Amino acid sequence: RPGGDRIYGVFDHQLPAALKKLPFDRHLSLKNVQKVVTEADGYQPHLIAPEQGYRRLIDGSITYFKGPAEASVDAVHFVLKELVRKSIAETEELKRFPSLQNDIATAANEALERFREESRKTVVRLVEMESSYLTVDFFRKLHAAPEKKPEKNGHPPGPNNDHFHDTSLAR
């Protein structure tokens, strides 16, 4: 019953593919950033940083993650329902008791529905928490953090490496 591989597939393939399709290029285009910052902070330039504009850009960007996150919950839910269905169908002992088989399937599907709703709420809550985590101080430190130099062998850092030190993520 290869369910774990299918669940990993949701997070290793489907979720990253959905995230790559998000319209960040449009949302973070120079024209949109100027518009959001101007609308948020007014037309008077700020001396340090346009804080409200940053907040709106962050909230808007992170809000895009809700759709793919909820779709991942639905995909895992579908995999689990299929596993329950196949497990019940393949269990020889249950074939003698069709009413018990039906009751188990009903109870399992009801539990999975409850877990799905709880998971959706949790995922949305996590996305919202992430949008409130980044503060303006994050951007101030980000500007001060030096960028990583290419490796000694002449190759730039790999695509999974951050462009900034972990200190930029500290509060």
**What is the rounded Rg?**
23 Å
Overall pLDDT, averaged? 80
Q: Give helix % range.
A: 55-70%
Q: How would you sum up the global shape?
A: elongated
Report on the biggest sheet.
none
Walk me through what this model shows.
The protein has 171 residues and is mainly α. The chain has a domain of 112 residues. The chain contains seven helices and no strands. Helix 4 packs antiparallel against helix 6. The protein is elongated, with a radius of gyration of 23 Å. The C terminus is likely disordered. This is Dynamin stalk domain-containing protein. It comes from Gossypium aridum (American cotton). Pfam families: Dynamin_M.
Describe how the helices and strands are arranged.
Elements: H1 3-20, H2 24-27, H3 30-41, H4 51-63, H5 66-90, H6 98-133, H7 136-144
Biased composition (Basic and acidic residues): 162-171
Pfam family, one: Dynamin_M
Protein name: Dynamin stalk domain-containing protein
Summed up, what is this model?
The chain has a domain at 3-22 and 65-146 and 160-169.
Structural features:
171 residues, elongated, 0% strand, mainly alpha
